[in-house]
């Protein structure tokens, strides 16, 4: 499959904030938003070096970048982040809640720990809810905005590897639908679920190295596991004017692996 994509200025003159944009999918969403004309806020928690690298890529794409830091498991930190972003940018058109803890170190449900359970729920559920709450309320005040929560296909199949991750991502659907109803019609909230992507973290996983990649490719109608830049623009679609009548939705991009439908 070719990774060549036509890029259109869907976000010219707009400001987009991407959480967890120092590495992986978040970094590619940030860069794609820049390529499409956005001023981009690059959020990080601990990977400052990665965030600065992403910001540099944003500038290389001809866009303005600003870097912000916060631990999104803390409501106080999220309030501070929202204040800082709106103070720096003046407005925010799009929030992409990309941050999520996938419990990468866990290879089986038998390895579940209290620490991992609490961490995943704090970041993936509480963090996403509070980011949507704080930023969405400010978007309501300005009269417009779009929020994209990055979900997962584990809501379809579950995860025998990390049940807490599947539970957390399923929780995003409730967050998305609740705030979509609360914020309508001026602020839209949707969930985008990519399938497996070959990020740096995925490539390092032991199961990926020992045959899972080939098994998944064989089960995927499109016959490929894409790098994250291939689906970054798909995630951003939900924040475009073309998606102006979509809210509270769950959109899947997994090469046909799950084929969810009525």
From TrEMBL:
PANTHER family: OXIDOREDUCTASE, SHORT-CHAIN DEHYDROGENASE/REDUCTASE FAMILY (AFU_ORTHOLOGUE AFUA_5G02870) (PTHR43639), SHORT-CHAIN DEHYDROGENASE_REDUCTASE FAMILY PROTEIN (PTHR43639:SF1). Keywords: Oxidoreductase. This is SDR family oxidoreductase. The keyword tRNA processing does not apply. The keyword Oxidoreductase applies. It comes from Actinomadura chokoriensis. It comes from the Bacteria. Pfam families: adh_short_C2. InterPro entries: NAD(P)-bd_dom_sf, Sc_DH/Rdtase_CS, SDR_fam. Belongs to the short-chain dehydrogenases/reductases (SDR) family.
């Amino acid at each position: 499959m070719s990774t060549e994509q036509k890029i259109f200025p869907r976000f010219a003159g707009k400001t987009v904030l991407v959480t967890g944009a120092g590495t992986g999918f978040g970094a590619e969403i940030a860069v794609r938003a820049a390529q499409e004309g956005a001023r981009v806020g690059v959020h990080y928690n601990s990977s400052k070096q990665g965030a600065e690298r992403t910001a540099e890529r944003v500038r290389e794409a001809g866009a303005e970048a600003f870097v912000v830091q916060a631990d999104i498991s803390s409501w106080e930190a999220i309030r501070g982040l929202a204040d800082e972003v709106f103070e720096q940018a003046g407005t925010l058109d799009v929030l992409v809640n990309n941050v999520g803890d996938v419990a990468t170190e866990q290879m089986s449900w038998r390895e579940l720990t209290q620490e991992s359970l609490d961490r995943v729920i704090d970041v993936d559920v509480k963090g996403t809810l509070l980011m949507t709450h704080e930023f969405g309320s400010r978007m309501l005040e300005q009269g417009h905005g779009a929020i994209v929560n990055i979900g997962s296909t584990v809501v379809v199949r579950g995860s025998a590897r990390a049940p807490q991750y599947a539970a957390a991502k399923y929780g995003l659907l409730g967050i998305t639908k609740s705030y979509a109803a609360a914020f309508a019609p001026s602020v839209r909230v949707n969930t985008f679920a990519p399938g497996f992507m070959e990020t740096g973290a995925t490539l390092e996983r032991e199961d990926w190295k020992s045959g899972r990649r080939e098994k998944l490719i064989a089960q995927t109608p499109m016959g490929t596991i894409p790098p994250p830049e291939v689906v970054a623009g798909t995630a951003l679609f939900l924040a475009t004017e073309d998606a102006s009548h979509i809210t509270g939705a769950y959109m899947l991009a997994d090469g046909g692996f799950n084929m969810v439908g009525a």
